[in-house]
Amino acid sequence: MTAPNTTEAFVHPALFYRGEQEYLDGTVPFIREGLKSGEPVAVAVPGPNLAVLKEGLGADAAAVRFLDMAQAGRNPGRIIPTVLRAFADAHTGTRVRIIGEPIWAGRSSVEYPACVQHEALINPAFQGRDVTILCPYDAARLDERVLTDAYATHPVVVLGGKERLSPSYAPERIVARYNQPLAAPPAVAETMIYGAEELPAARHFAVERASRLGLSGASLDDLALAVAELTTNSVVHGGGSGVLRIWAEDSQVVCEVRDRGHLSDPLAGRRPPARDQRGGRGLLLVHHVSDLVRIHSRAEGTVIRFYLSGKPSGPA
Amino acid sequence: MRSRQPTGVTDMDEAQEADASAPFSTPSTGVLRVRPLPDRPGWRAVGEINLITRPAWEKTLRQLTVIDEKVCHLELSAVTFVDVGGASVLAAAAQGLPAGRRIMLHQPPAALGRLLDMFWPDLPAIEVVTR
User: Do A221 and B1 touch (CB under 8 A)?
Assistant: First the structure.
């Protein structure tokens, strides 16, 4: 695959496929081309497609790094730091190729805004980097709206084997459009107001309620860490206090922090920090441990909601 | 659930009894007490490491980095929680140690182990002893 814009090192095409054959036609030559030119190649796609690709690649599969995106990328907010940048940063000094499929037909309507924002944010996150990230979209099973959004989040779209520039590429518009108010918390949500003095109490409150809602073991540790980071952020950056809410939604525990801060950097929490960097890991931690993170931020205040399930989900 | 105890109290009192776990068996309230170990170079910390107690934790780590010992011990079995900021200053202290020196963490809370694995895997200057 060649870069249509020769001034930009980063190449980010969407591949619209219908059926297994189109999937293989769009991905296997892309992988083999990369391997032939000595580029490290990673494939992060949901399990069933992973199996299709491994079989399609035959012996070449041995040279490819495979990740199940349904696990590693369950929370789309951690795909940039823990999947894409993790692979690219481990191979600096050479162009790398990645196939990343973060959106599949089973994604829920609660997950989707975070998924499409992730796709949009790949562009600023990798601007100027010698990286190609090909994103397959199951055109036979995904909604029309998802495919329309893919034109806005990818500068190039591959359709029926033909590559063309997207006429509607506008990733920053997608980030803004999906920065929407979140659905109101249910009436049963338990609430606590906290300031600096209540940081430990807020954490104990959340852990105690989450335990009653069914979380246990390492998930409770993860919840404690995430609540500590978000409530600390409120105290330091969010006006000094905030409101914590917690409730159950289907099989997940949902925890929400609301404060007067404004998260103006859409890539906050998605940049892997340098080893010796002191701050900047709070939101990253929340993305790491959660199944999903939803954010609504504007000048008047920010709501961050994270979802945890009893099963371990973090990549670390 | 609200804490009514003063937060951020640091107690560097060397005369305190070695086993001070009893007063802290209730959920932590944002206090961190630190004192030297009686038998090895290093400190025993009791309480939790969070935004409020971080300055005390940093002070301990600064002292730890300047003492001239190959191995420094941090006894953390009575530390109930460490946040990302607390783990960050520990990692920074370990990264700032001269080659060959290291910090041994004794029975750190699960949260600290998880954070070190997540953000600082393979820090040669930190050794974790779980028992």
Answer: no
**CB neighbour class for A205 (10 Å; exposed up to 12, middle 13-18, buried from 19):** buried
| 3-state SS assignment for residue A78 | helix
Whole-model pTM: value is 0.90
Quick: pLDDT tens for B53-72: 999 999 999 998 888 889 99
Residue of B nearest to A274 (CA): B119
CATH number for the domain running over B30-129: 3.30.750.24
Continuous segment of H or E residues that includes residue A163: strand A162-165
Q: What is the mean pLDDT of chain B?
A: 81
* Residues of the domain holding A291: 190-308
Q: How far is CA A75 from CA A119, A289, B7, B101, in A?
A: 13, 9, 35, 38
Cβ(A200)–Cβ(B29) below 8 Å = yes
- In this structure, the answer to whether residues A173 and A194 fall within a common structural domain is no
**B3 to A205: CB separation less than 8 angstroms, yes or no:** no
Instruction: Specify if A287 maps to a domain.
Output: yes
Verify that A130 and A196 share a domain, yes or no: no
With an 8 Å Cβ cutoff, are B81 and A281 in contact? no
- For residue A282, give the 3-state DSSP assignment: helix
Shortest Cα–Cα distance, B121 to chain A (Å): 10
ipTM of the complex: 0.88
Answer for the pair A122, A134: CB distance below 8 angstroms, yes or no.
no
* Residue A104 resides in a domain: yes
Residue A8: which pLDDT band, with cuts at 50, 70 and 90? confident
Residue A255, domain CATH: 3.30.565.10
Tell me whether residues B51 and A229 touch, CB distance under 8 A. Answer: no
Provide the domain count of chain A: 2
